[in-house]
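Hi team,

Filling in the usual template for the complex we talked about on Friday. All components are listed, including any nucleic acid strands or ligand strings, so the model treats them as one assembly.

SUBMITTER: L.P.
PURPOSE: interface mapping
COMPONENTS: two
RESIDUES: 589
SEQUENCES:
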Amino acid sequence: MQIKVNINNMINLISNFLIRLRTEDDSDNVLNDLISFVEYLEKYSSAKDDVLFDKNFVTSKNEKGKLDEVINPNIPEILKLKETLLEIKGNPTDNEANIEVTKESLRKIVAALISLKNKPNY
Amino acid sequence: MADREQHIEFLENYLIIELFEKIIRIRKFIETAYEQEKKETDRHLLELYNKALSFIADKLIKFIQHLPTKRDDGTIFDNMLYISQNFRAIENIHQDLRNISSIKLVPEINTFLFDIDQKEEKLLDFNLVLTDNYSFKERNLGKKILHDLKESYQSKPELGSTHSFILPKIEFSNPLNWSILVHEYGHIVSSNESETYLAKLQEKGVELNPSEQQNIKNWVEEMFCDAFAAKILGPAYLVSFLSFNLLNSFDCSLDSNSHPSVYLRAENIKSFLHRNNADFSTDTTITNYGELFNDIMINIDSSFNVYPLDTMEIGVNKTSILRTFREYISEKEGMIVNDNSNNKNIHTLKLLLKKLEQGQPIGTIRDELDEKVMKLLSKKVEKIDENDIRIMKESSTERPTSHWEILNAGWIHKIEKIQSEFVNLFFTNYERDIEDKLEEYSTYINKLDDLLLHSISTSQIIKSIER
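RESULT (copied from the run log):
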């Protein structure tokens, strides 16, 4: 079965996580949500699961919003983030530093997704 | 470093207030539609849209409350990302305006377009469309229909060309963002720009494959239209162009097949204004906000570089593209900014800013009495000759203002008002209801719209009488 993931939604979710990590008092709660999200992301971005990122946005080349191409980015940062999050969960000592590492990973994932979304010449 | 942070904070605040303004403008569009059509369904939908827009406003206020006092590359990245995500939400709601009755165009928009240049015959065949997508475009409808017919028939009728300007619905009463229509008008007046430019590039030994050639042709047409708009509107065009594009700042460094990146375009506009002595650089009391936004955009880019985005590779370096374009445009006839739209006319802007501050429209202006006139006034009556009377008459007569004067004064006034009053309104006193704050800002926005619309029509009426 092919599952399509909408890149715009993904970027939006991560953007909200980045702000939640800044604004919510209960960071454990945010980190738990984040682990579930990354598990989902990891599952759907691994090659064996045959999951495709849906380039579902309108460009000047594709004004009808038709899908030009589906892509599987296999962003390595997604796997790294899950490892980091599980480490934090197992050993929640230096929360502030852990959150900073998590944020950095999330930003790199967003940058990779934005690059995919805007990749010219499709 | 402190300067950089202050500048970025200034831009973030400005962009967040721009988002609030878009919310106000969506409401204004729906209210106008209801007033014109009196359809009950529109009234019900207004309630629904209002709730959705309040939700977005509420999210923005929560975000503002947690803006960090110290900004590093990471927080700048997060902030710009959150701003662009909220802009996307507003764009989506804008698209949903298709469910609401549309509105009649305000007459001032035709006046505005009609006065872009003197070749009126070019403007006889244009058409203006309000669109659900938040985008500004120019489209040759004649060409498009011929293309559609080609799918079914081998022969084609003579249709001629009909140009359509496409304006986002919520900008229907906002002349400050009509400036982008002047760029679109550039597509009508441009002629063979890309062929001539390409020949110039190839003379320099640059070799391009057919697909690169096509990209460069598209880019050059866009750059020509930018220079055309900058020639007529000066820094007001750059500030409007960047206000629109920076709401999605992650797209600014990215090229597409049809458009060069916002970075390249802004640099082109900025250098065009600079070379034409039209960048306000001769007066320290007048700020070129377009140039300031451009500088901040470049500063933000260094934050984004920590998380690099891929961009398009093209077989010629972008500095060469820009440099060759500068040579090309400086040799092109009719692309020199005249004295009424360059730094020599800054003194008028100051007078117009004063009028706006006093809540007066700026469709006409009477220049301040200069030394020569003051001297004449003290002359004995019997010594006054015909020429003296002519000078005195001219100095006491109001003349109509130009688009350049109205839009530059309008933008400067708005941004300075945001800095002096509205940053304070939105970024402090969080106990106060956000709807209350939006109401206060909307009173200002509506008043400014009215003043500028009134100014455009007054200046056009006087010009018509004088013709």
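MY TAKE: Residues 55-70 of chain A have pLDDT under 50 and may be disordered. The interface with chain B takes residues 8, 11-12, 15-16, 18-19, 22-23, 59-61, 100, 103-104, 107-108, 110-111, 114-115, 118-121 of chain A (CB under 8 Å).

Thanks, L.
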